Amino acid sequence: xxxxxxxxxxxxxxxDPMNLLYCVIGxxxxxxxxxxxxxxxxxxxxxxxxxxxxxxxxxxxIMLAGIYYGAMYGGSITSILINVPGDASAVMTTLDGHPLxxxxxxxxxxxxxxxxxxxxxxxxxxxxxxxxPALAEFAITFGPPEYFALMVLGLTTIGGMTGxxxxxxxxxxxxxxFIATIGLDLVQGIPRFTFGTYExxxxxxxxxxxxxxxxxxxxLVIGEEGEKIKFSKKDLSWRxxxxxxxxxxxxxxxxxxxxxxxxxxxxxxxxxxxxxxxxSYGVGKKVSKRGDKFGTGVIxxxxxxxxxxxxxxxxxxxxxxxxxxxxxxxxxVMLGALMMFGxxxxxxxxxxxxxxxxxxxxxxxxxxxxxxxxxxxxxxxxVKVLNVSSPVLNAVVMGFILIGAYSLNxxxxxxxxxxxxxxxxxFMKKLGxxxxxxxxxxxxxALLETSLRQSLIISNGxxxxxxxxxxxxxxxxxxxxxxSWPFIKKIIDRMRKSGKPSVGEGLx
Amino acid sequence: MRMAxxxxxxxxxxxxLAVFIGAQxxxxxxxxxxxxxxxxxWxxxxxxxxxxxxxFKSFTKYxxxxxxxxxxxxxxxxxxxxxSAVAVMLLxxxxxxSLAIGLMAGAIAKFTGPTSWKKVIAITVVxxxxxxxxxxxxxxxxxxxxxxxx
Lengths: 508, 150
Hints:
The structure holds two protein chains of two kinds. By secondary structure, chain A is mainly α.
């Protein structure tokens, strides 16, 4: 009952005309950014963050959330129409989406992507609504050692899972932690690694870093010219996008399964929407009666990954809002934004700022509905935007990034930092270093150091406190397991290989 | 990729070493609790240790199939975009941020791909005006002005 009352309050906050406007802006930009090959939700949120400066926190986060789930759907547009995924989480959609378009069913494929995204998203908002407050209530008992352990877990899992090579992910996270130590020390008040530059005394803000690593670096690696999308308006009219009864019959179980998979995986740090869509597609292929036809253009091959990636985007909000631990690059940027708004994400957010949390939840319902309307009615318009050439797009986005960086503190120093991190991000991308762990470590760095110090003050300098408290001990054990898992797996594989009799021996 | 990984590992190792040396100047433990040098010192040690992993792996079968990470056309485009952005930093005092951004947008549009002069001029004019309206007028961020007063 209390949940429903809170939801009613949240809906009233979300339907405030200004909040509604920010929701529309977020969803529209999200769809466009998701559809533009190269620019993912992290880049989109980082680039558009300056638009939230000076707004009410709830309006700002509603817009950022709108960008996030709008981008999840937007990625499917180019996946289906030109076989180029807008972002990594839309890769699986190309497998059946584009063959469907080739069969003349682009409209239905886009329609199913929209419906699957919206159903997945909305169902997860319901799960979020009931799960998040319960988790927040549990997390209220957490002290500094538990928070330290949580942050270590977040960093190790994201560091180990986001790149091809875990060592590079961990290095990225550690460099992010180092950047977080730049500035005045919180306890002693002495400058660290500032080299006499007074702009560095307050530390390096996460926004120039995120804008550089996610925004500029993406632009630097985007190719010169993409394939133009050719379509007839009739093919993409809203009537053509409505899936048939048969489409629904095949897709419904995949949407339900994808939603569950997406929500669970979205909550895990580091896993995110891309892995969710891969697993959902893989499981769907295995259990489907038409599994052998996956990849040739079956509608459930679009429904499975699309429901999962939108579900994951909502699932990722659970650890972000209840524990203050983001699970992906996009939510890491959102965490930074929340801190910028003066809010402390974590269990107390639900008790101290209920209008904010429930306003966001209410906006997710409205945002998902808006997404459906926009997806059905405005696809031809979005496709026109996508046909803008890369040089023009790069020019406009770059201009926006630099002015956005300036507007953070009205300082050209931040513009310089953004450019510098853009160059760093370019080389990181090329050399296989994931940027997400660096941004996450930068956002969490100050909190991690503070909770480490507070914990050691509580224990009179005894580091055993992290292992003797049951929750922090368990979380740290999971973190250690996550780091050492590749080695353990190798040992297990070797033992299996050496212990397993060969076929010939088995026959004897 | 093999050579690129080796060079990167050495650079990151040296970076870790520099952080470690810098952290030596800060208190490690202060009245029984970690001082300002505690975290940087441990971060530096871990960076140095981890930097060795790709370095040593590059001598094994690791990443044999990995291709060349860089190609010249990408460098050209990246150079134009970054060069134009650096030019904004240098020209802002003289021309103001809006105008410098307009020129940067025009340069990127013209030199990173085949864009007609008509479009280039449109972007050079429209981008700063749109940015000015959005940031200065709507969001209330005063943008630096130059010799032309805007």
